[in-house]
Design a protein that fits this description.
The chain is mainly alpha-helical. The chain has 9 helices and no strands. It has one domain.
């Protein structure tokens, strides 16, 4: 039961963040939109560094591997993965008119991919706790889950709120926000069951998610904050998002 609760806690953070869309109006002010896009960029850049790349380097070092090798390979593969999706995937309902993924769809993909290694990290910690021979306690395991849940709160919001701004209903926007986080408990459970197989590849999974997120930031989000007037608002949003996520990652991660 403790393991089940610990696995669910991060998903609750995403759900609470996504629920903010239920209290907002359909059309956002352009200044607010720029700030939110910048905020999402800052959150994703910070999470890429502090939640993904640094743990990837540390884990590779503990495994006796050249620390930067898995991080470099995974990062490049993550960038290439979203690049290929953006270029090769044919036009479908969730894409923009030119057949490429819209910035919102790319954002959902990046956040969802980012949540996969987080779920796996939770699974590894609770698997270690269940093993009872690696020094991992229930308290430390729950601390990790709560830290990730707090991090997931803004991520749930940055998925659901842009969807609402594009005209999707509040309920559907909320649902997509929730779905972006459902991968965490799923992969946490799978990791607990397959921990001996998954653990050696975690540095690659972590950096892969980082590369995917940085691709979205560079290719989709930042450009949207810089066109037209008041581009400085997007820059402020990036600063706030980066610092907030850095504090959450370092203090609670």
């Amino acid at each position: 039961m403790n393991t089940f609760i610990g696995i669910i806690i991060p998903f609750l953070g995403t759900t609470l963040g996504a629920s903010l869309v239920l209290f907002m109006s359909k059309n956002l002010d352009k200044k607010i939109e720029k700030f939110l896009l910048g905020f999402a960029s800052g959150v994703m850049i910070s999470a890429s560094v502090f939640s993904l790349i640094i743990p990837s380097l540390d884990m590779a070092k503990e495994q006796g591997v050249i620390s930067f090798l898995p991080a470099s390979i995974g990062f490049i593969l993550g960038m290439l993965f979203l690049l290929l999706l953006d270029v090769l995937v044919p036009h479908i309902n969730i894409t923009s008119k030119n057949g490429k993924f819209s910035k919102t769809t790319m954002l959902i993909l990046a956040v969802t991919i980012h949540n996969i290694p987080e779920g796996m990290a939770v699974g590894i910690v609770f698997a270690g706790m269940l093993a009872q021979n690696v020094g991992i306690t229930l308290a430390s395991s729950l601390a990790l889950s709560i830290g990730i849940a707090i991090q997931n709160f803004p991520e749930g919001a940055i998925v659901s709120m842009p969807l609402r701004n594009e005209g999707m209903s509040k309920k559907k926007s909320f649902l997509y926000g929730i779905l972006s986080g459902i991968v965490e408990p799923v992969f946490a459970i799978l990791t607990v069951l397959l921990v001996n197989f998954v653990t050696p590849f975690m540095p690659y999974f972590l950096s892969f998610a980082s590369g995917a997120m940085i691709y979205v930031v560079i290719n989709e989000l930042i450009p949207q904050t810089q066109y037209g007037k008041n581009s400085y608002i997007g820059t402020i949003g990036v600063t706030v998002g980066f610092v907030l996520m850095m504090i959450l990652d370092v203090a609670l991660g």
